[in-house]
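Input (structure):
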């Protein structure tokens, strides 16, 4: 059975026809499978203090050798050392290349208990840290990867941790998951919530290069869309070194002298490297930081050679050619080769002859192949050796320089130097970008016979956007698991801003906000430049309070009340920049204009430089409503939604719509009816009252005066005839309350107001009123509107005392902050003035007509510092930003090892009748671990 299409479904084809079809499209498939893979992030730990790509490059650039005596923290070197090769159970070397702090870990960061952390193989712990840093350097938030098809490919070959656990009493429920090669990759996927292909690969010394090959295949076949590939090797036990010495593989002099006549083996090194990989097309579309490209890769086996551990030159040449073919690369395009370079008398000549066969004919003495090996710097990192070579090449491409190959004094006479067009750089060489694309190869072969070769090309040249000198204010969020970690991270950013000036500040904020997990402890900064952000973060680090900085623990998301003020005729033009820059706001305002049925935006936002025409109630009230609608929709798009709502005047209608009682179109219809009615009002006066909360005793004596609502400064607006308003003003002045009158062409009296509200109620009978989706508090009664209907719109706006009662009632609904939605900050001013002891936070939306987005960003900064989860993708939806490399999270490490604590000496019997002694022993028992209790019980049984 086939579909209506002329192309049959694969499931309909019999196997033979499917095989024939596959053969016909083989060439097209090869093209599809040759897409370059982008390296978009790197994390690492290598010897010599190389904890970042930057510090690793400094080590390479300076030509430093990270080999040192074996630290006593690993094992008693003297107990295992014997200078005579072949001595049973002994090693003839005292050197290695070690990374620092393998005993330390930050389990809290990864949600791991201290007890489990002490039973975890340091390989697993270090992989978690390095992978996290690689993702952050790629501008990817681990939280966004949860449930994704991201693949995990980890190269490992040693299980030293299991060698240390010789005491069976050390085994507990965490032992199995804390060790084992497969668990290293599995825990990584588990901790990050990844659901792509996940595997640990033991291909001996070629392990990590094989994982990169497998990751590229998985990406090209679309088995995954993002891949983590790398390797790790730690030297925790003396046993592997004893085995290597028995095989005469290690250097007795303690140096990796690759290609040198004195080469006598390698020096073991530790290391961990992790790459974040994407298909190039996806990386370009996502504006990822592309560090370099993986063009081709291949693996094979040496087959039969002169010995299992001896490489086969023919097989090495074959795997190099296969990698070239897979990437569509010609031998003459490859200018550098990072050799496996173990520094053995047999391996070095075989490897050099193999590359000579493949690349020799395409090179010459004038244009030789440059060959080097990172092992001369950091030793042989075994399971991480291949990825160490890749990272070295990527850094060399970025810095346009090939580091010096160390320890080459007398070239190995077994290598045909005269016949091979190769050169080994004894000092740094320029490798500048030019018309010819720079491509390098990386080789690895394991003592088990597995070979691998990977081709790396320079990142495509993208014209960099000029770094802006001045920019609009930006929001920068930093977060951490703990307060000390946040302080440390802020210091890193202060240092970063002091030395890094290549990136646009907007790109920095975009990457920090979207490419990091938002942890509980937060500091948010609003600044216009990196220097300004540096100044404000410095104040935070120093414990000073500076404007533009918000901090919080973020342990609970703030529960916000959206407050809507109701009357202000001096806000025309407010929100203009939001109409111009925020599509969500603009679309909401235009939707309201469509519901109104007549032009609105042109009157609200006249052309720049043009004198605004005064708006009557017929446009001013719908305009206020439209701006409030736009702000609600914009806040919601950014992830900020109300827990409860409260409004006065026109704000009542916006509050009802925000609560879901009415649609915004129906709300606009009712506001338009109200505005049309008030447009008919006779001329009179308005009174702006400085302290409306003190009107309670005054208003009852003037029943014809209408309280219209709040203005943007928290002042009450009264309206009525000229004579009545003057009488009210005189009364207020006697009480020391400032009140400023002004004439108005549309004075609202009680009669006018009642008629207008009756018209609104009549119009509302045709509108559907739903139950509020969030509590909608009445400014008239201070209580929740449970089942609102059309008659609710007949009510007056209430008195300021009732407004405050309603605001107080919000706390009963779990409100922890107030968001003023509208031009100005009327509710904020009223609340802070009337409730100065309130612990709630206040956030305005619009503070000035020409400063729209700044006020929003400042409130957003306060909210996100308090724990709000921002929809960053919506915040940046209509702005293009590049991801840039920024400082990574600061782990707060402590020692976590499996050292068994001494068992307290607990008496075997409880003294009868001595309650105090019994209580003391019970308290002691509670401090024991399960293992200690089990040991005591067994001891009791034996003594019994």
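Output (sequence):
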């Amino acid at each position: 059975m086939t579909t209506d299409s002329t192309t049959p479904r694969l499931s309909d084809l019999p196997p033979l026809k499917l095989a024939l079809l596959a053969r016909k499209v083989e060439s097209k498939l090869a093209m599809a499978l040759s897409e370059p893979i982008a390296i978009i992030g790197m994390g690492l730990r290598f010897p010599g203090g190389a904890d970042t790509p930057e510090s690793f490059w400094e080590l390479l650039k300076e030509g430093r050798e990270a080999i040192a005596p074996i630290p006593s923290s690993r094992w008693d070197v003297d107990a295992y050392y014997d200078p005579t090769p072949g001595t049973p159970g002994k090693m003839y070397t005292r050197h290695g290349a070690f990374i620092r702090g393998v005993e330390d870990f930050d389990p809290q960061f990864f949600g791991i208990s201290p007890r489990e952390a002490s039973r975890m193989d340091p390989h697993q712990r270090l992989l978690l840290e390095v992978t996290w840093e690689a993702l952050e350097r790629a501008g990817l938030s681990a939280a966004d990867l949860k449930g994704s098809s991201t693949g995990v490919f980890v190269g490992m070959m040693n299980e030293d941790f299991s060698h240390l656990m010789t005491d069976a009493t050390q085994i507990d429920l965490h032992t199995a998951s804390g060790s084992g090669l497969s668990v290293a990759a599995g825990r990584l996927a588990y901790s990050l919530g990844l659901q792509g292909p996940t595997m640990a690969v033991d291909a001996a010394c070629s392990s990590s290069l094989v994982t990169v090959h497998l990751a590229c295949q998985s990406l090209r076949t679309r088995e995954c869309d993002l891949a983590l590939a790398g390797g790790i090797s730690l030297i925790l036990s003396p046993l592997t070194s004893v085995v290597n010495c028995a095989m005469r593989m290690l250097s007795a002099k303690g140096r990796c002298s690759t290609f040198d006549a004195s080469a006598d083996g390698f020096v073991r090194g530790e290391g961990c490297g992790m790459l974040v990989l994407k298909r190039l097309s996806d990386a370009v579309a996502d504006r990822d930081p592309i560090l370099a490209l993986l063009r081709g890769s291949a693996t094979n086996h040496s087959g039969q050679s002169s010995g299992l551990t001896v490489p086969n030159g023919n097989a090495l040449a074959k795997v190099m050619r296969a990698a070239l073919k897979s990437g569509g690369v010609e031998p003459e395009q490859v200018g550098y080769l990072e050799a496996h370079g173990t520094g053995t008398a047999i391996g070095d000549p075989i490897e050099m002859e193999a590359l000579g066969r493949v690349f020799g004919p395409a090179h010459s003495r004038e244009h030789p192949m440059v060959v080097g090996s990172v092992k001369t710097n950091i030793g042989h990192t075994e399971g991480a050796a291949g990825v160490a070579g890749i990272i070295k090449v990527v850094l060399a491409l970025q810095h346009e320089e090939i580091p010096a190959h160390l320890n080459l004094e007398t070239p190995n006479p077994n290598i045909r130097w005269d016949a091979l067009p190769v050169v080994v750089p004894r000092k740094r060489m320029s490798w500048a970008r030019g018309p010819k694309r720079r491509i390098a190869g990386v080789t690895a072969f394991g003592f088990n016979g597995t070979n691998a070769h990977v081709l790396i090309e320079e990142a495509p040249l993208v014209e960099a956007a000029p770094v802006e000198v001045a920019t609009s204010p930006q929001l920068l969020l930093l977060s951490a698991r703990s307060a000390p970690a946040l302080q440390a991270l802020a210091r890193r950013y202060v240092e970063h801003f002091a030395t890094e000036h290549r990136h646009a500040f907007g790109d920095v904020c975009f990457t920090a906000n979207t490419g990091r997990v938002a942890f509980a402890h937060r500091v948010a900064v609003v600044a216009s430049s990196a220097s300004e952000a540096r100044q404000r973060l410095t104040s935070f680090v120093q414990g000073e309070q500076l404007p533009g900085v918000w901090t919080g623990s973020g342990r609970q998301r703030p529960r916000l009340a959206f407050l809507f003020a109701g009357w202000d005729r001096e806000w025309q033009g407010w929100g203009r920049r939001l109409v111009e820059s925020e599509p969500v706001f603009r679309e909401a305002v235009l939707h309201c204009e469509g519901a109104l049925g007549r032009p609105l935006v042109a009157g609200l936002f006249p052309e720049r430089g043009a004198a605004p025409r005064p708006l009557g109630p017929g446009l001013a009230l719908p305009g206020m409503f439209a701006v409030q609608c736009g702000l609600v929709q914009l806040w919601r798009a950014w992830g900020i939604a109300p827990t409860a709502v409260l409004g006065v005047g026109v704000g009542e209608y916006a509050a009802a719509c925000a609560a879901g009682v009415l649609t915004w179109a129906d709300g606009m219809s009712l506001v338009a009816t109200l505005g049309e009615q008030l447009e008919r009002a006779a001329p009179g006066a308005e009174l702006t009252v400085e302290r409306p909360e003190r009107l309670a005793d005054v208003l009852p004596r003037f029943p014809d005066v209408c309280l219209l609502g709040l203005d943007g400064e928290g002042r009450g607006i009264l309206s009525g005839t000229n004579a009545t308003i003057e009488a009210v003003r005189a009364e207020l002045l006697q009480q020391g309350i400032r009140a400023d009158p002004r004439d108005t062409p549309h004075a609202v009296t009680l009669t006018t107001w009642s008629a207008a509200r009756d018209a609104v109620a009549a119009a509302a009978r045709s509108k559907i009123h739903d139950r509020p989706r969030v509590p909608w508090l009445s400014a008239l009664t201070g209580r929740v509107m449970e089942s609102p209907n059309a008659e609710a719109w007949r009510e007056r706006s209430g008195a300021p005392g009732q407004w405050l009662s309603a605001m107080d009632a919000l706390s009963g609904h779990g409100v922890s902050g107030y968001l003023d939605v509208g031009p100005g900050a009327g509710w904020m001013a009223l609340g802070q003035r009337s409730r100065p002891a309130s612990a709630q936070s206040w956030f305005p939306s619009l503070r000035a007509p020409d400063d729209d987005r700044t006020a929003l960003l400042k409130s957003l900064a306060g909210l996100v510092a308090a724990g709000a989860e921002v929809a960053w993708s919506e915040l940046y939806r209509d702005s293009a930003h590049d991801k840039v490399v920024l400082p990574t999270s600061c782990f707060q490490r402590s020692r976590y090892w499996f050292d068994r604590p001494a068992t307290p000496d607990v008496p075997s019997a409880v003294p009868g009748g001595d309650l105090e002694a019994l209580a003391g022993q019970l308290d002691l028992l509670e401090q024991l671990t399960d293992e200690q209790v089990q040991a005591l019980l067994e001891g009791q049984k034996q003594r019994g």
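Notes: Residues 617-637 form the longest helix (21 residues). DSSP finds 33 helices and 29 strands in the chain.
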